[in-house]
Amino acid sequence: MVEDQQRMAAMNFPISVTSTRRRVRLWLWLLPLASCATAPPTVRQIDLDAWRSVPVQALDNHSFFSTVPMIRMKTAAGVEIRNYASRSNADGWSVALDKSLGTFVNAEAFQARANAWEGCNNFFYIENGRVTKYAPLGPTCFTNDSVRPARSVSQD
Predict the structure, then answer these.
(1) Average pLDDT over all residues of the chain
(2) Which domain holds residue 104?
């Protein structure tokens, strides 16, 4: 190693072997971190589970879900299904002109609207005033801490 440093000094190399090794070690350490930072967004199970048993009022007042178009329906068994569609419209159907937003629609209308939007359908299943399941569906869906219920929400 001393010989390498002497050879480089004689050749007027500005970088020594020691500093090159340090740089290589630094890059080897940083490379895994960089690959984590570029991972595509994904749906995290922990975010879905956070909604289980939460009162429906938390969904009504949520900082994100209260700002996107929502349609809902009830199944024959009495389960309310809400679709918060965070996406654009594919077939020209006008979200702004649709008077059914936020109201109950029949199953056919619910399915038609779910198919018309491109992006993410955020389906919430509600029974007895509580969320029983959150199921995002679509190619652009991802979750993070911002879609969880507010921390002050009581699950009593």
Answers:
(1) 75
(2) 45-147
- Residue 121: the pLDDT is 86
HEC readout, the chain? CHHHHHHHHHCCCCCCHHHHHHHHHHHHHHHHHHHHHCCCCCCCHHHHHCCCCCEHHHHHCCCCHHHCCEEEEECCCCCEEEEEEEEEECCCCCCCCCCCCCCECCHHHHHHHHHHEEEEEEEEEEECCEEEEEEEECCCCCCCHHHCCCCCCCCC
Does the residue 156 lie in any domain?
Answer: no
**Shared domain check, 135 and 59:** yes
Q: How far is CA 61 from CA 8, 21, 83, 86, in A?
A: 67, 55, 15, 16
65-122 per-position pLDDT tens digit: 988 888 888 999 999 999 888 765 544 444 444 555 666 666 677 677 666 666 788 9
Note whether residue 154 is domain-resident. Answer: no
